[in-house]
Design brief:
Elements (H helix, E strand, L loop, with lengths): L5 H6 L5 E3 L2 E3 L6 E5 L6 E6 L3 H20 L2 H17 L1 H12 L3 H21 L6 E4 L6 E8 L3 E4 L7 H13 L3 E4 L6 H13 L6 E3 L5 H10 L5 E5 L2 H12 L4 E5 L4 E5 L5 H13 L9 E7 H16 L19 H16 L3 E4 L14 E4 L6 H4 L6 E7 L2 H8 L7 E5 L3 H10 L4 E4 L18 E2 L4 H6 L2 E8 L3
Parallel strand pairs: 7-8, 7-10, 8-9, 10-11, 12-13, 12-17, 13-16, 15-16, 17-18
Antiparallel strand pairs: 1-2, 3-4, 5-6, 6-20, 11-19, 14-15
Bound molecules: nicotinamide-adenine-dinucleotide.
Family: Belongs to the aldehyde dehydrogenase family.
Keywords: Oxidoreductase
GO molecular function, one term: succinate-semialdehyde dehydrogenase (NAD+) activity
Length: 488
């Protein structure tokens, strides 16, 4: 339990930019409001950075790079480990803040804090494992030396949906690898990143290594930073639309990029699946984070022979979700992040129903304050509908029926995305056969959750490139350098 009252916790969150080890106001003196999506009220005002601030942050990261890159891996590891301990000790404060600014139920925020903190611990353990090799060349004469070094200053841009985990999934491997960075958190949920920065400083991150710029002018701030040759890496998590734009900007400097973009996960229930387990999995895959997750099941594909049973049980469970502010006990579904998101979700449902889909549960925008939308199930949808092709990013489950595995694979692969796919079957051979044909960077077999700090998270196709977490995660922040040595 946290000792802080709500007011004291909010008052303890820094609201400035963090540049070169100091909290400062935006150069233009501007601020913007951070809003509680459950009530529409202003939580705090934070600094609104301009391009000038972004460049000051990059300069600080550049100046700190040499010394941080030479800091012993054990020292970097111990800072990360201390950060893990501090975040864990303050888990309740982080969870409350996440619920206030992002909206999810407190229990889910607590789970996110545990998941997010784990990246700090995981990468504290990876830092000392960075290694190279010395070998004799195949000619038997020459010698090859291969070593790793930090890629250099990074720009990290994060989305609003997992305010702590999306930040630690980038910050932790960057710190472990010896990179300095500029973090640009989402303008809708910057508070968690600001508190996290305070905790990382307390853990010992030196001045200039981590710089944070909050802004409502993301493109204006990031553009000049990306165009500057001092920047060596861009790691972005967000929409495919913005990711595409950033990849083309990064091309000018041939900047290394990692892109964690949108998803449109198929959730396949085979005729031999344990239907009750599949319903449990689908509820988690669909409703975790209120459906506002890149790994959310976007399309539920069910074999005709089990479709009726699955749909009835699943719809009953969906109807049981309790909509309300995430901080209220009993709430199992918080608000969407803003009115724009709610309108998008409502339109996808309305259009699907107008085009012949059947509303089984939910589908009506509630009246009153906050950006709420109920758990919704739509059947009879077809592959050409926007509700199937687009990322829904809300608590809406479209259900489609298939007749054989080939059709399931064809439907599953029929969007531009390829982040994750879920398969429920009792036949392991079949599961493996299916997963080999599904176009996705991650596959879940008889589970609705794949995210794990020890595993490589990332997608294929328009879901992006690069991996976060696992042994792969630190590689994104390392260069491989080869030194040829004449025969001794
Ligand atoms: P978004 O693309 O609108 O914004 C993401 C971040 O980019 C924010 O910090 C935003 O301020 C910034 N941004 C927006 N326009 C920019 C521009 N022109 N130049 C530079 N920065 C810009 O996405 P969002 O709405 O915050 O997040 C939801 C999206 O993120 C969904 O598509 C979701 O699938 C995706 N996402 C992906 C993963 C993953 O790991 N693959 C994880 C979480 C979210």
């Amino acid at each position: 339990m946290s000792a802080l009252t709500d007011e004291a916790l909010l008052a303890s969150v820094p609201t400035g930019l963090f540049i070169a080890g100091s909290w400062v106001e935006a150069a233009g003196g501007r601020t913007f409001d951070v809003v509680d999506p459950a009530r529409g009220s202003v939580l705090l005002k934070v600094a609104d950075a301009s391009a000038e601030d972004g460049m000051a942050a990059l300069a600080a990261a550049h100046d700190a790079q040499e010394s941080w890159g030479r800091t012993g891996a054990r020292v970097r590891a111990e800072i990360l480990r201390r950060a893990f301990t501090l975040v864990t000790e303050r888990a309740e404060d982080f969870a409350r803040l996440i619920t206030w600014e992002m909206g999810k139920p407190l229990a889910e925020s607590r789970a996110e804090v545990a998941y997010g903190a784990e990246f700090l611990r995981w990468f504290s353990e990876e830092a000392p494992r960075i290694s190279g090799r010395y070998m004799t060349a195949p000619d038997g004469v020459n010698r090859l030396l291969v070593r790793k070094r930090p890629v250099g200053p990074c720009l990290l841009i994060t989305p609003w949906n997992f305010p702590i985990a999306m930040a630690t999934r980038k910050i932790a491997p960057a710190l472990a690898a010896g990179c300095t960075m500029v973090l640009k958190p989402a303008e809708l949920t910057p508070l968690t990143s600001l508190l996290l920065t305070q905790v990382l400083v307390e853990a010992g991150v030196p001045a200039g290594v981590l710089n944070v710029v909050t802004t409502t002018s993301a493109a204006e701030v990031s553009g000049p930073v990306i165009a500057d040759p001092r920047l060596r890496k861009l790691s972005f998590t967000g929409s495919t639309q913005v990711g595409r734009r950033l990849i083309s900007q990064a091309a000018d400097q041939v900047l290394r990029v990692s892109m964690e973009l949108g998803g449109n996960a198929p959730f396949i229930v085979c005729d031999d699946a344990d239907v009750d387990a599949a319903v449990d999995g689908a509820i988690v895959a669909k409703m975790r984070n209120g459906g506002e997750a890149c790994v959310a099941a976007n399309r539920i594909l069910v074999h005709r022979s089990v479709a009726e049973k699955f749909t009835a049980t699943f719809a009953e469970r969906m109807a049981g979700f309790v909509v309300g502010p995430g901080s209220e006990p009993g709430t199992t579904l918080g608000p969407l992040i803003d009115e724009r998101s709610r309108q998008k979700v409502a339109t996808l449902v309305d259009e699907a129903v107008a085009a012949g889909g059947t509303l089984v549960v939910g589908g009506a925008v509630p009246v009153g304050e906050g950006y709420f939308y109920p758990a919704t199930v739509v059947t009879g949808v077809t592959a050409d509908m926007a509700i199937v092709q687009d990322e829904i990013f809300g608590p809406v489950a479209p259900i489609m029926v298939f007749d054989d595995d080939a059709e399931a694979v064809r439907l599953a692969n029929s969007t531009q995305y390829g982040l994750v796919a879920f398969v429920y079957t009792r036949d392991l051979d079949r599961a493996l056969r299916l997963t080999e044909r599904l176009e996705a960077g991650m596959l879940g077999i008889n589970t609705g959750v794949v995210s794990n700090p020890a595993a490589p998270f990332g997608g294929v196709k328009a879901s992006g490139m690069g991996r976060e977490g696992g042994a792969e995660g630190i590689e994104e922040y390392l260069e491989t350098v080869y030194i040829g040595i004449r025969d001794p």
